[in-house]
Design a protein that fits this description.
heterodimer, A: 510 residues, mainly alpha, 2 strands, B: 486 residues, globular
Chain lengths: 510, 486
């Protein structure tokens, strides 16, 4: 089947591109490295979009499935093989990965000046790892791809990051590996308690749904910790502000736009879907954690704009808003109904593009001003109108303005959560989370007002501040287009997600 | 018929005889044929030819119906022995190639180095192939003595002499303990073949067999550097010439495990509840101790010594599981550990010329001074940490899988958490290589032979995991020799 081959290409082409890049380019990369990476990214994006149009909304289950007999031999067969496929939940995330991967290459076009060959190679390897995570239908393979993204991200943060990059890189890799340790134990527990030992997700799911509640809750906790570090869920979120802030622009975009979604995907696909009774048992607790995420993330973001003498860091604000918005994903998850889960996945996609855009645009600002401090920037719209306009659009999308994508994700989550019948006290939690929208409006608008509007600060009055170059305009313009498209016509995304979420939601009485 | 026995035994000993003859040939050529100033490198290549011939000979035993043991059951050529023999031959070949920078610098007794290395391999091969008490001791002594000499090879270096002496004294001590245990086993059973001992030691547990088991474990514990017998490892690893350290860390450790597995599985299955608990505790202590102390090291050879202690703990988890899956996982882990550790050490060997103080700080910016060396060391360290898609991940995964199957949940949790801890000090070195500014500007170069051995090791790190099926299959077949299928 052609589509299955194309899916394999979407996963493996970036890695192949990275290897060729490392072999045939010199250390500085010059024009060759970034051009090559852009070409590979564009090809993968086109293939991913093609897969999107080939998705059959009438067929149930996974599509574009391919299987390769991998770890089996005469003396040792332990139930794993290379199986990949997508459904309505994972295909939008694959698209997100392809899109942000390509645009991350473009946004770094002018700003990465040293060791460019290694930089673009690492970006491509990262893209393969994440694409593999979303497409894996075998738990061992999933774990393998999951761990694969650690080393490239560590190097990306550690080499091209900000002043505290080494601390942030170490924190990121150790924290994530710590979470993965729990995930591994959860995977082993699932495998060995299933009647038929296998890592195949489809076979495993049908068996794990029959486990006793006690066993389910234990495995649920183990897996939840692993995914909670990634999402991130309070109190496992402390790595995020450091990592996002210190990472280079492309690193922040991939980290916030795609890597966080791995956690959400794991929760939707592998935890709730595999262990429905445990999910129902913990749903209220998850809902509470969601509210804490939303409000505490908003609080952290607010801290960045309150005019005290403490350092006010724009990237830290955007990172904290990420924590807050991923709380909506968790809220939709806690609802355990069709609309709620749908909202969680849609919110994952929209948050990915919106936060990706926020980091991208601020990366452009940082390339010009070389500071992230709010106090030092004012009235930038007078000098860099295009960048300012795009940032304002991104900010409005982030606070959930209708006709932009953020509204779609948030409204679906709120509808689903409010109408949840599986989980107690959801209306209250929904209202509390909705308050987060108000807070988001607060800090985003305050930030825009402070940084872009108003009088031009002295420091930049005599400083050279060029506006965006054509390549940068194309990159941010593409994301604005996607955000507007999904905002105006959610039908491009929602039916596919609904189709994917439906078998999971069917597990829960409504 | 004694003559038949002799013929059969010689047939089974073929690879070892080839290695011995090759070793003697190297020594004789050096003494009588080669002129004084000529390069001895060709003798190294002759050693490689010998290894190749031995490996080719051993392939005769592959796949066929298992050969009956020779010499009244003392010598076996089963899948277990073959697995280890190939492991040792691989390790020796890579070390011969990689020792070139050290021998260039040292310029003395090069032929004897190669010859002794081959004789050590013979000793290790015998350790894996034998199933009888006296020959266990004999082969252990052959290899220990040779390794002690090899450790002291750099005669002008005080630390090397210290390493050799420490290794020698501790080997003697551990051999004495081992001999006590073996003598007790003989006394209790009246037989020296492992199978016969197992037959006698059935039934209720008595104190004497437990004592024998403990003494044997202590004796081999020194060899494989299990806590609390690991004290010699950091000093000897740091002081010995790096090629010898590399060889010790992979080959002699694997051989120690081979004998340990055979003795415990074949001779002492009756005591299984006792030694599985003991091994589980030792595994936990060894992993944790090795990892925690490695965190504090600034000398790369010492750090790798403590890291190898930690990895011994992981292998012991598989032994503690005591199922065929567990033993297979341990054997696979030893194979992965061999290629990974050799990859790491070969880079250290090359850097020996450029970083004489062996500190981790001197590796700063290695990724820019020599991208391939930096990448090789990074891959080796990440594999040691257990990150996919490298072989170390697969090795650890199978160990945890086997342990979980047996119900050793806490041990798995400890192992997984130890992996996380170990990542910190491995990544610290990667950080120094990639993130820090270069310590010096000179690019680091290496001779082609070293490049070949490094390439082989790195390819192993990359692919022994991804293409695990044949290696796991071989390990599984080997494990079936000592454990009935479960």
């Amino acid at each position: 089947m052609v589509e299955a081959t194309v899916l394999n290409l979407v996963i493996w082409l970036p890695l192949l591109g990275a290897i060729l890049l490392l072999l045939f380019s010199d250390e500085q990369g010059s024009n060759g490295a970034r051009g090559w990476a852009a070409v590979v990214g564009a090809i993968v994006l086109v293939l991913a979009i093609w897969l999107y149009f080939r998705f059959d909304m009438a067929a149930p289950g996974y599509q574009f499935v391919s299987e390769v007999n991998w770890l089996r031999s005469a003396g040792f067969d332990f139930g794993s093989s290379y199986i990949i496929g997508v459904d309505g939940v994972s295909l939008p995330l694959e698209l997100l990965n392809a899109l942000l991967g390509f645009l991350a290459v473009l946004i770094s076009w002018h700003s990465i000046q040293h060791r460019t060959r290694l930089f673009y190679a690492l970006l491509l390897i990262l893209q393969t790892a994440v694409a593999g995570v979303f497409a894996s239908l075998d738990f061992f393979l999933f774990f393998l791809f999951w761990e694969l993204e650690l080393a490239p991200m560590f190097l990306l943060i550690g080499i091209w990051g900000g002043a505290r990059r080494e601390y942030a890189a170490f924190k990121f890799i150790l924290y994530t590996l710590f979470g993965s340790a729990f995930m591994l134990m959860g995977i082993l527990a699932l495998y060995f308690n299933a009647g038929q030992h296998t890592f195949n997700m489809l076979a495993l799911a049908s068996q794990s749904r029959g486990f006793a509640l006690g066993l389910q809750t234990l495995i649920f906790v183990l897996l939840f910790i692993g995914f909670a570090v990634k999402l991130p869920v309070f109190p496992f979120h402390t790595w995020l502000p450091d990592a996002h802030t210190e990472a280079p622009t492309a690193g922040s975009v991939i980290l916030a736009g795609v890597l966080l979604k791995m956690g959400g995907y794991g929760l939707v696909r592998l935890t709730v879907s595999f262990l429905p009774q445990a999910a129902a048992y913990f749903a209220f607790a998850i809902g509470v954690l969601a509210v804490i995420n939303v409000l505490y993330g908003a609080y952290l973001a607010m801290n960045q704009v309150v005019p005290t003498s403490r350092q006010q860091d724009v990237k830290k604000l955007i990172a904290s808003s990420s924590i807050s918005h991923m709380g909506y994903v968790l809220l939709g998850l806690a609802a355990l109904n069709q609309i709620g889960l749908q909202g969680a996945v849609i919110q994952m996609f929209t948050h990915g593009v919106i936060t990706g855009l926020l980091f991208m645009v601020f990366g452009l600002v940082y390339d010009r001003t070389h500071t992230r401090e709010v106090v030092r920037m004012s009235g930038l719209a007078q000098r860099i109108p295009f960048i300012s306009t795009v940032f304002i659009i991104a900010g409005l999308a982030s606070l959930g303005l209708p006709l932009l994508a953020g509204f779609i994700g948030e409204i679906t989550v709120f509808f689903g959560a409010y109408s949840s019948t599986s989980t107690p006290a959801m209306p209250v939690l929904t209202i509390l989370s909705a308050f987060g929208v108000v807070l988001t409006a607060g800090y985003i608008l305050w930030l825009i007002n402070r940084v872009f509007h108003g009088p031009l600060s002295e420091e930049w009055a005599h400083h050279e501040l060029p506006d965006a170059t054509p390549i940068e305009r194309f990159a941010v313009g593409a994301l604005v287009f996607v955000i507007a498209l999904v905002g105006v016509y959610p039908g491009i995304l929602a039916p596919m997600v609904a189709h994917g979420v439906q078998p999971i939601a069917a597990l829960f009485p409504s | 018929m004694p003559l038949d026995q002799l013929a059969h035994g010689t047939f089974l000993l073929g690879p070892e005889i080839i290695l011995i003859l090759c070793s003697f040939l190297i020594l004789l050529l050096d003494l009588f044929v080669l002129p004084e100033g000529a390069s001895r490198r060709w003798l190294g290549y002759l050693g490689l030819v010998g290894i190749g011939l031995a490996a080719g000979y051993a392939s005769v035993f592959l796949g066929q119906v298992e050969q009956p043991p020779a010499f009244n059951g003392f010598l076996r050529a089963d899948a277990f022995a073959l697995f280890f023999k190939y492991l040792f031959l691989l390790a020796t070949a890579l070390v011969i190639l990689a020792a070139e920078p050290f021998l260039r610098r040292y310029q003395r007794n090069e032929a004897e180095f190669y010859g002794l290395l081959l004789l050590t391999t013979v000793g290790l091969n015998l350790m894996a192939a034998t199933a009888e008490l006296m020959s266990i001791y004999l082969s252990l002594e052959i290899s220990s003595l040779s390794l002690a000499f090899l450790a002291a090879w750099a005669r002008g270096d005080l630390r090397s002499s210290e390493a050799g002496l420490k290794f020698f004294i501790l080997s003697a001590l551990s051999s004495a303990l081992l001999l006590y245990g073996l003598a007790l086993l003989y006394g209790l059973s009246g037989a020296t073949t492992l199978a016969q001992i197992a037959q006698v030691l059935q039934g209720p547990i008595a104190p004497a067999p437990l004592l024998a088991m403990s003494l044997v474990l202590a004796g081999f514990g020194f060899k494989i550097a299990v806590v609390p017998f690991q004290m010699w490892t950091p000093d000897v690893y740091e002081g010995a010439p790096t090629p010898v350290t590399a060889y010790m860390s992979v080959a002699s450790k694997a051989a120690g495990f081979a004998v340990l597995i055979r003795v415990f599985q074949s001779a002492l299955p009756g005591l299984e509840p006792n030694w599985t608990t003991l091994l589980a505790w030792l595994a936990f202590l060894t992993m944790t101790f090795g990892n925690l102390v490695a965190l504090a090291q600034g000398n790369i050879k010492r750090m790798l010594a403590y890291s190898s202690i930690a990895h011994v703990g992981f292998v012991l988890i598989g032994l503690a599981a005591a199922t065929s899956a567990g033993i297979a996982a341990s054997l696979y882990y030893l194979l992965v550990y061999t290629v990974t550790n050799l990859a790491t050490f070969i880079v250290v060997i090359v850097m020996g010329r450029f970083a004489p103080d062996e500190s981790i700080a001197s590796y700063a910016g290695l990724a820019r001074r020599s991208p391939w060396l930096g990448l090789s060391l990074a891959l080796g360290l990440l594999s040691l940490a257990g990150l996919p898609p490298l072989a170390g991940f697969f090795a650890k995964f199978f160990i945890f899988w086997a342990a979980w199957e047996r119900g050793l949940y806490l041990l798995v949790a400890a192992g997984v958490l130890n992996s996380v801890i170990s990542l910190f000090y491995y990544v610290r070195i990667i950080r120094t290589m990639y993130l820090a500014e270069p310590a010096a500007e000179r690019p680091v170069g290496a001779a082609p032979g070293v490049g070949v051995s490094l390439a082989v090791a790195v390819l192993g790190v990359l692919f022994v995991g991804l293409i695990a099926a044949p290696f796991l299959g071989a390990a599984g077949l080997a494990a079936l020799n000592v454990v009935p299928a479960s």
